[in-house]
């Protein structure tokens, strides 16, 4: 904060997810003489979240859109427009009048990790034509990739201010499943977790929109990805935030968004890289809650990827998954440039450090044992259980999106009805 208020430029500030980066540009906007702080934001969900925060804090703000000419204490602009001629003209006029205090680029790592599929991010380097202070914020800037950021934003020689990005309250785990059973196993894991959520939230991350929608259908919960209309995305998020439970998402819900009460994160398949994984798992536990972060990997998936030439970030992710020792040590070594193992600090131990694996697999065995007992009932004579069957088959009305309840509706056998009941109890 001292460096920002002193006007040092350019600055790269690396703080952990949930580390208070928003305060670094909202506080100066309140403390300084009248002026404008521009905040460049990469995702619609994050823009909406920031606008809500500024409104609650009663900080004057606006979202820049084409044709906007008015200033505000905080001007929010989408990263897709911030490098455009229209916005640069607007910002240059503020700069010439002495009103532009600084430009803050949030989640700045995206300028080199996401520019392949979001080419407009390449234009953000045009912001360097402004004479004001430049502040770049992120929770995931590996020291070995500082040159990449320097090239993408023309900030070589910038001062880097770092804090440890280790999240002590997150327990990291990796689970294998049979090939072809990724979604089925993911659903089983989620059913077990749903019993523990009790009004809190969980996020299931998928690598594609199609996989995202498939998993959501199996779980009977909402999904979120960039293919939805803006209004539809906002409505789904609002309902999930209000009601809790699970939501299935792509990386569109992976960066910067801060919602309370997320205590479970599941990655279905290998994440795209360590930076994406740290961002997405970092959505959880923002108020210090204990969090389970699980990566579910098909047998042979890592080996199939070994045949390619992965980026440095992907290599770090593979090392995390294949680690024979502490996973937190691998993660911190890459993201912070110094290794911090679970045994070095007071934290929720990963599944390689003892505590995590015992609790996780113990809960899994408990779930499987309970289901095995239910299966034994299925051997009972159906003809002597008609009253029970009639009652159980009505449960399908309460779980219309569940696979078991659909089977119950089509053919109300004892097996289908008890499966429906079991799903209702654990879900």
Automatic annotation (TrEMBL):
Species of origin: Cryomyces minteri
Gene Ontology BP terms: double-strand break repair via homologous recombination
PROSITE patterns cross-referenced by the UniProt entry: HELICASE_ATP_BIND_1 (PS51192), HELICASE_CTER (PS51194)
Catalytic activity: Couples ATP hydrolysis with the unwinding of duplex DNA by translocating in the 3'-5' direction
Keyword line: ATP-binding, Nucleotide-binding
One GO cellular component term: chromosome
Protein family (similarity comment): Belongs to the helicase family. RecQ subfamily.
Nucleotide-binding as UniProt keyword: yes
InterPro entries from the UniProt entry: DEAD/DEAH_box_helicase_dom, Helicase_ATP-bd, Helicase_C-like, P-loop_NTPase
EC number(s) given by UniProt: 5.6.2.4
This protein's name: DNA 3'-5' helicase
Limits of the Helicase ATP-binding domain: 2-159
Helicase C-terminal domain mapped to chain residues: 182-346
Enzyme class (EC, first level): isomerase
Highest taxon of the lineage: Eukaryota
GO molecular function: 3'-5' DNA helicase activity; ATP binding; four-way junction helicase activity; nucleic acid binding
Pfam families hit by this protein: DEAD (PF00270), Helicase_C (PF00271)
